[in-house]
Batch of 3 targets.
Target 1
Amino acid sequence: MFGKRKQTSIEMNNNYLTYTIEQLAADESFINWIKTNDPELSDQWRTWLENNPKEAEKVAGARQLVESLVFERIDGRAIDKGALWDKIDQSIKPSPETEVKSGKMGLLKSALWAAAATLAFFLIFKPFAGKENTVVAMVGEHMETTLPDNSDVLLNADSEIGYYPKKWGKGRNVRLDGEAFFEVTKGTRFIVHTKLGTVEVLGTSFNVLSRGDRFEVFCKTGKVKVSSFNGRYNVVLTPGNAATLTPNKTFEKTKLGDDGPLGWKAGNFSFDGATLEVVFDEFERQYAVEIRSSESIDTMRYTGSFSRGDLRKALKDVTWPMGLETKTEGKNITVTKSSKLSD
Amino acid sequence: MSDQQLWDRLKSGEQSALREIYEQHIDFLLGYGRRFGKDMTIVEDSIHDLFVHLWQKRKSIGGTDKIRPYLVTALRRRIIKNHGNQKGSTSDQPIETYNFQAEPAIENKIIKSERELEQNEKLAVAMAKLSEREKEVLIHKYHHDMDYKDISLVMDINYQSVRNLVARALKKLRSGLQIVWLLFLLCV
């Protein structure tokens, strides 16, 4: 562990009243209370709860979250630590070459060694590429950003891209987690790196989706090269075509027409026989709500679309054709089978 | 002895200090390293190189009062690079893509009810759906008790990104867990 948890007494400020469950669950003092049960902290939190009885539900939710964040320990017992140390010990035994000799030559040599050492230090301990620049579109928001080469990126909700401004000159590399549409200016190779594969272009526009096990690339203009993570499978896309990573890790190519999956850019989300789990997932992402349903509902297949903007209308567009009823409480939506239709 | 003193001893060339640092942190480093993949030779080689480097460059390294974040940062970079090399990627991987293993501790718990069992399964499913970075950030925050500043150093992303990552990961986990609550209510 990284050292003892701070046991400082905390000011029970009123800010906690505006916290969401997630913010509370990420609060250091709150985590300490749940994890250590420190009596002083306990007192403070209990008193606060007594003064703010309405917060009980929030505290319960955050508590559940923190308590579930206990991870499987992975230890290194399988490794012979003594043998590993012996290997290190062998490697650091001074060799004749590194011995500093006296005399002019020695001085020069040691100066060179010092310079090399300093350089090496920067290589291991200093991020030589500088900090990564990260652009995030949170749940419920879309985000537009321009890269150093004036390429434009439109991020769908709950998506993130990252790149190193200081490395940009050496190659255009972007990391993506989520979904984004790229309009790349003409120039050198431009590569999008995702968990499951890479997308390589020179200058064109294309859409990349990388969420969980899904990796889908759509080419809008120009030419796009898609590769699996290990580089074993490659496919080149021309406009209107899409590549989808299949469960056996190869690519399936499909012709989707001009706009393919790009409806999301204008706030339209279309589905063709998708499970409601997938549809609700997208819905939650676009409207920053939480949908509760049952497994028998999640597995139903939906063909249709919803738009971003009017939550109630969008919800109806999804649930009404499926004979489902909804109940909305704040950010929580409960979906049930319509009592009239169920057996 | 404080980290600061131990570090100073290392810088002044005491080999016993390197040994002490090794002993204090090796379990942690091995455990953390294994989260990046099953191949233990990569973890072993990376740790070997890290300590050899630390010794060879001891005179030029900066001071620190917190040794572990330094070691974790350096090890993480080596492991990701070595995994990348093994996959046969050309030159050095410009952007980090990696696998990270973080599973909720379920086996150690005594399961009291059907509901709890179901809850645990949902938790495992929700956790598996997180991105590698989301999983790693949760491990650092809730398992390693690191603060945002150290996480930012180790994962090489800025402070605000760390906070965003945590918020997103928690949100995803919570929606995964809530479904169980509803089922529970329906069953009663």
Note: Helices of chain B lie at 3-11, 15-34, 40-56, 67-86, 114-128, 132-143, 148-155, 159-187.
Target 2
Amino acid sequence: MTVVELARRLRGGAVSARELAQQALDAARRRADLNAFIALDAERAEAAASAADAARAQGRDTPLLGIPFAHKDIFCTRGLRTTCASRMLADFVPPYDAHVTERLDVAGAVLVGKTNMDEFAMGSSNENSAFGAVANPWDGTRVPGGSSGGSAAAVAAGIVPFATGTDTGGSIRQPAAFCGITGLKPTYGRVSRYGMIAYASSLDCGGVLARTAEDCAHVLAALAGHDPRDATSAQRPVDDYVAALDQPWAGLRIGVAREYFGAGVDHGVAAAVHAALRALEQQGARLVDVSLRNAHHAIAAYYVIAPAEASSNLSRYDGVRYGHRCANPTSLEDLYTRSRAEGFGAEVQRRILTGTYVLSAGYYDAYYLRAQRVRRRIADDFAAAFAEVDLIAGPTTPTPAFRLGEKSGDPLALYAADVNTVAVNLAGLPAISLPAGFVDGLPVGLQLIGPAFAEARLLAAAHRLQQVTDWHTRTPGARP
Amino acid sequence: MSLDTDRLRHLARLARLALPEPQLAPLQHDLARIVTLVDALQAVDVEGVPPLAHPLALGLPLRDDRVTDADRHADLAALAPAEAGGYYLVPKVLE
């Protein structure tokens, strides 16, 4: 069920928040095969649900009050282990809450657990987790996508109606596409990064995975807003995302980016996305051909910039102040180097080394600085396109979910899975992935991209599509 | 640029990662492929294009020079793998 449906049942007294929390915990345990959760916290859920029921009895009625949910295990939760799916933080219990954690607490949502992910959010398959891979609820032999794979699987399997995620190069949108749900990556700076464990700070963005755009609107309303503890948090008023869902939108111009339908895009995926776009056209949208000339440089620019920022961010894990420490260090150098080698998994080490390389003496200009110039070109392409259209559309991913193990030995094949998502992060734009049909029983995602801070427009378009299609209502239990 | 084993050892030293010998060859292979991937950037015409370090044109926000955080010394020290009397313990640096 959706957030909106559950809220209606809570309001009508048909169910209590305590019952919903218990159902979510039971479902999570029943679906332990998915490995979607790193931790469940029944005690905390029970306390939060009781508080929500008490508040409702006092007359409080807010959209997320008493709704169970899960946090990606990258958001700090005071007193509850936060691992980032890394051996490095396997025993890390944060002494403070992330901004996102605080916001959902204040909204009265009930945290039931922390979801599995690619270690430090580095990955596109959720296979890079120190706590094991996650299975796709549509086909247990396939990946759920990543890095927010546990969150996507938990929502798709009906364990929780929504979960938080983060998106640095596609980590909300790609798993949402692979799991047949709706995933919203807001504009960079719209949601505070305070207490969200850093990967690449100029790209990292907190957001939400849910069944519908309407639910995403309710959750974003709770998350968005200025936070002085994050220097990049946007100081600008938050739109009324829920009210905007039903605003008239005749004449909305949707740019169809031809580069997003290029070589490597599965024919079935392209056909499904075109069909979804025709459905939007029938609702009054106008489809316009647009070109993003530098789109094919996005992967290369991303895999310079993100590792560069990661190598700097992850230098904080030194085995001294918190996190994993090796046994019997013989010197300070030995303490640093062995703690880090033992604490970080293979992909994290690859990205740290790549980042170290592109920032090292003699290579900075050729790689890092050049990637930043290409980044400007990519952002300029979007700006030029948005002078002509209101939104840009394409497939979220070139293919449906691939098999577990299919690409895990080949980092480059995995990087290519992000081909249609990374440019959005480089430009800092908001984007949403929503279900747009199936190929061989596997979900396909439609990506809509908006100009900065156009979340209301994005959500309204997605909501309109979901009112005239039913792909988002399909669940793995009831295959097409 | 070739990414040979010596270069990889140097990068590992800069990144403070202890890499066991058997890992060097596969890592070298992967990193060389990643470098080839990002080398595609060399072909892009970026003449006169200013670098973009950050997606949004944000000014540097300033705040009053006041202490706003509580004293969390004990909370933070409790996270340390080895700590005594409010100090982090590490292997001896000076003999």
Note: DSSP finds three helices and two strands in chain B.
Target 3
Amino acid sequence: MARETRTFEKHLEDDLHLLLDPHATGTIPAWRMPEQSSRRALPVVGGAGAALGAKIVTGAAIAVLAAGATTEIVITHSANPIDWARNVQQQVQASPRSQGGPAHSQPTSAVHPSASSVGGGSPAVPRVSPPSLPTVTISPLPIPTPSTPTLP
Amino acid sequence: MRGRAGDRAINALPEQEAAAEPEYTPGSAEDFERLYRRSYRKILITLIGMLGDPAAAEDCTQEAFVRAFRAWSSWRPGAPAEAWLHRIAINTAVSHWRRQRLRQVGEIIKRIGRPAPPPSPATIAENTELGRALRKIPAKQAAALVLRHYHGYTNREIAAALAIPERTVASRLAAAKARLRVELADWAE
């Protein structure tokens, strides 16, 4: 039995060599370092993209705020936001509707004539009641309450 | 046995690389290239023995080395590098073998009633009795046979390459040989 096994194993080894030896002499292809797989690169790109998007959105918001502030400074010749508010009040006061004039009179200019005097020690601003805005009443939706069974 | 089976395989390597397995540093690209040059043919031959198709074996060998390179920094110097590589390569080949089987089943279903296509030229070279018999046994059994009877690996090295306990190697080899004996009934007489 052992001899038979040895014969079989010898046969097996000889035939394995006959079968596989021709492939043992082939040329070895040059090793090329694999590139980073796209599967791994994607989260990096996604992360960078998300960060870039957040920066763009933040930058746009800052640009809008800066443009608004610049416009107010140009109009009021003052960097003080209190003066901006005062200017708005004056414009509202000077508007034809608040004076009881016709609704569609001449268009009001963006810069009020008295705006130039607003910056340096302007007189006390008279009390102005702003035009009445249409009121919108928001009635909350009724929240359904679970009906509890009444106990006898 | 190891001497005989191992001698021929080792003789295929350049002289300076035929010595005992050198030391490697995990993560070192130069060391990995050395390991690649040293073990490429061995891996390729094992996979040809498993798959019977040299072209598919080459693809799997390349894929296995790419996988190994990605895991190279996690390799522990205590484990034999070649057995570690064999484990990755055998798993790659087993996955290929399963996909191939599924494809074959699909083709048989599609082909019902039509004549079988001629065998591909890549596999004609492997159409020896032993080649055919190796393809009929499970891929991991075929791998164990090649590792033992071609490369001359010890049970410990085969265990490391197949990721199985050392005591399982003997039973797996015995099962593989018993199966081959059946497939090659009139061969060893």
Note: Residues 48-97 of chain A form one domain.
